[in-house]
Amino acid sequence: MYQGLIEKKKKLAVIGLGYVGLPIALEFARNISVIGFDINADRIELMKNSIDPSNELDSTAFENCDIEFTDSLDKLREANFFIVAVPTPVDAHNVPNLIPVQKASDTIGKVIKKDDYVVYESTVYPGCTEEDCLPVIEKLSGLKNIIDFKLGYSPERINPGDKEHTLSSIVKVVSGCDEESLDTIAKVYELVVKAGVHKASCIKVAEAAKIIENTQRDLNIALMNELSIIFDKMNINTYEVLEAAGTKWNFLRFQPGLVGGHCIGVDPYYLTYKSSKLGYDAQVILAGRSINDGMGTHVAKKVLQHIIQNGGEIKNAKVLVMGATFKENVSDIRNSKVSDVIKELQSYSLQVHVTDPHADSDELEHEYGFKLTDDLADDYEAVIITVPHQAYLNMEDKDFAKITQPNGMIADVKGIYRGKISSRKYWSL
Description:
The structure is a single chain. This protein is 38% helix and 14% strand. The chain is of the alpha/beta class. The protein folds into 2 domains: 2-208, NAD(P)-binding Rossmann-like Domain (Rossmann fold, 3-Layer(aba) Sandwich), CATH 3.40.50; 226-428, Rossmann fold. α15 (397-403) links the parallel β11 and β12. α5 runs parallel beside α6 (128-141), α8 crosses α10 and α12 packs across α13 (338-346).
């Protein structure tokens, strides 16, 4: 397989060309022949014109790449090594939604051939690849794993908006269904991952490694968020406390904030779901999730408290929310916890205006029911900086004074203006 790929006698296909799949496809396409497959025809047309629908890559990323973008199963059949990089979200009740990954498995089952390879990168709970995805492929194809084709798992480690920790610079965890597949999958990924690969002993270990990466971050941020709630009641600035504590060599430098997106705010639920199916109800993980999921409401209520204490009329109050994406300097709005802040404010009939230099207004309206504001007012009762986009970092005290009432509040979720606001009430997590 490996020799066939590097000699371009065989082709590699990436199924799912979102913020994870497209960078992988393009990186491989600089070395071997690649088929980029996605079910969204509009996205395919954009990529054919060197446009990244996720706005993560510029047109130069498409240069010198041997890749064909398609939504055709017939074209996909030409591939011999399949990488699955589709989303794995949760539903409204935080139950894993395996429909995308199962549909991708269905697609592979229709096109896979004897001696082909399938590697999943989508984040799932341990056991999902072999227990939920593999049977779909075997049933539709009539082929058997190990005997007729090889199965593997290599968790994605793409970090949206991060130009330093890229695919090639991060060690890649790889796993296979047997020793032969493990060695081959490792060699294939070594074509594009300069940092090297780590061979996991089995697929379940690789799945578990990925899911605890984000679960660990989620819990550490939850601790910071709970501390910020406690310190707020003590009139202590959390970021000052963290600076002081951070002088100790082994202190872990996490910060409070809104935990959204399609990784940290989602992946722990895959682990707790599988745990409950096995008869154990996770306690620490779900406690952390509860804290993080409640932070949007906490921020909104601090603003409401300020308006009431300063004699403002809630129904006539205007609040500006700066930032709508799930993190800074990206356009991705999936599972953005900023929407929780806005919904809580709107439930009290406040007039909420929203700005964001990266988000798409129509997407926000479709997903969350609010649009971006074109013209700012000059009488906001409060301004909430929810996402520290680069475009916001150079704002000064006078800039906020121009758009707020004299008794207005600057609620700075990530503490980026600490020590810079003097003319208005300042608060941060």
